[in-house]
Amino acid sequence: MFTRVVEITIKSGKGKELSATLNEKILPMLKSQAGFMDEITLISENDPNRVMALSFWKSKEDAERYQLETYPKVQDSMRHLLDDAPMVQTYNVDTSTTHRIAAGRAA
User: Fold this and answer.
1) Long-range pairs of 94-100 with CB within 8 A, sequence gap ≥ 24
2) Contacts with 6 (C-beta within 8 Å, 6 or more apart), sequence order
3) Is residue 105 part of a domain?
């Protein structure tokens, strides 16, 4: 399993609009992608303008395909809500109680 971690800073007061955009536009795009498994969105308790989104993929190749083909559309759909460019990092998932992943086991 593979994950993409996207850190964003939204414009002040745009939290509800971001939530609506995620639920109405972005999640449907994600769910239609080959290899997509789950999305978790976190909003900072100390700074509600800081958001971290974790998407989980069956393979690195699935995540890379999404990055190239669909992520530019996702970025465009929320560009007006962002204070600056999102930072994207990628990780191999080592352990997950939700997906019952064991270290070293193939996805």
Assistant:
1) 96/1, 98/38, 99/1, 99/37, 99/38, 99/56
2) 52, 53, 54, 55, 86, 87, 88
3) no
Per-residue pLDDT tens digits for 3-14:
999 999 999 999
Count CA within 13 A, CB hemisphere, residue 36: 19
Q: Which domain holds residue 16?
A: 2-92
Which pTM does this prediction carry?
A: 0.86
Instruction: Count up the domains in the chain and report the number.
Output: 1
Residues 6+ apart with CB under 8 A from 5: 52, 53, 54, 88, 89, 90, 91
CATH of the domain at 40: 3.30.70.100
Of 76, 80, 32, whose CA–CA distance to 55 is shortest?
A: 32
Q: Look at 107 and 101; give whichever has higher pLDDT.
A: 101
